[in-house]
Design goal:
- There is one protein chain.
- The chain is built from twelve helices and ten strands.
- With about 325 residues, it is an alpha/beta fold.
- The radius of gyration is 19 Å and the shape is globular.
């Protein structure tokens, strides 16, 4: 985390940040450049692979080309989603190719987001044990790729209290296993009880392991839907996203900058990035903030770049204050 690039060495960031400022304000542009010249942002930017899920599922982008694509956009940290190499977790020759692509493009492989391996808050003891063991291969893969974490889900059906106890057990067991590989097990607010900041932070406090933490996402704070499961139907109850991020930040090993829509000034319409990133900074966080664009109004690449410009604008402002 300490080897951060200076913005003096990244002309693309300078250009992108400058374009966010009102064009008639030459003085403001000059000040912005001066800020870039003398300061670093307090965090680093990575790219969540899910931002390209349409291109990946549609065959327009290959998983092994993700590192090069991120680098071409001026991003040197990447966050994988296991769905795009689901059968390759134990294929060492394939993982070698991933390592080579990352090295060729000088990007850091940050983490693997793991889905589809079972809920670590499953209230059925046997199912939860199976879910824990299903994640072992991803811990080994993350270690081999040089990632610092796997992102997991604390899903479970049952009462708030029952799922809490199950999540403490499931996540704690997996974190103990992952500690042997020096890998973090981190939980995103990802629907259901996990999107309740108080609930998830209390799970972390109970587990109390340094390698078991959170991945606060700026947008996933739906705690109740009118369909089945954590993603079924429409959201009918939201948790306060700013409070949720504040509650999860003490345990954060990574951060997800979710985005959907932007106004004419380049600001996210539904999420106050300045407010969110100030919460992140106030907790002393200096790691990666991952771009996760999920909007429909812009194409995937355009949405990613809009999010990147916004993070840079906000990051520069907060880092100079």
């Amino acid at each position: 985390m300490k080897n951060r690039r200076t913005f003096m060495k990244n002309g693309s960031i300078l250009l992108a940040a400058a374009t966010l400022l009102p064009r008639p304000m030459a003085a403001a542009n000059d000040l912005h450049r001066a800020m870039l010249n003398k300061s670093e942002m307090f965090f680093k930017i990575s790219l969540a692979q899910w931002s390209f899920h349409k291109a990946l599922f549609g065959g327009k982008l290959e998983h092994l080309d993700f590192a090069a694509k991120a680098k071409s956009m001026g991003i040197d940290g990447i966050e994988y989603v296991n769905q795009f190499f689901r059968t390759k977790a134990e294929d060492m020759s394939y993982l070698d190719q991933m390592n080579q692509r990352a090295a060729d493009n000088q990007v850091k492989q940050v983490l693997i987001m793991v889905d589809g391996e079972g809920g670590l808050g499953d209230t059925d003891d046997a199912a939860r044990k199976t879910a824990v063991e299903n994640h072992y291969k991803w811990i080994h893969a993350a270690k081999y790729l040089g990632c610092h974490s796997i992102r997991v889900n604390a899903f479970g059906q049952g009462s708030r209290e029952d799922v809490w106890h199950a999540a403490v057990d499931g996540l704690g067991s997996l974190a103990e296993y992952a500690a042997k590989e020096s890998i973090n097990v981190i939980v995103e607010n990802h629907g259901g009880y996990s999107s309740d900041g108080k609930w998830l932070s209390s799970v972390m406090a109970k587990i109390d392991l340094p390698n078991c933490g959170t991945l606060p996402d700026f947008g996933n704070f739906c705690v109740k839907r009118d369909g089945d499961g954590p993603w079924g139907g429409n959201c009918i109850e939201h948790y306060d996203k700013y409070l949720g991020v504040k509650e999860l930040m003490p345990y954060a090993h990574s951060v997800s900058a979710k985005s959907h829509r932007f106004d004419d000034n380049g600001n996210e319409i539904d999420i106050d990035f300045m407010k969110m990133m100030k919460i992140v900074k106030d907790h002393g966080y200096t790691g990666y903030v991952g771009i996760e664009y999920e909007g429909n109004e812009l194409g995937e690449e355009e949405g990613i770049m809009a999010t990147k410009r916004l993070l840079e604008k906000v990051g520069i402002a907060l880092s100079s204050s």
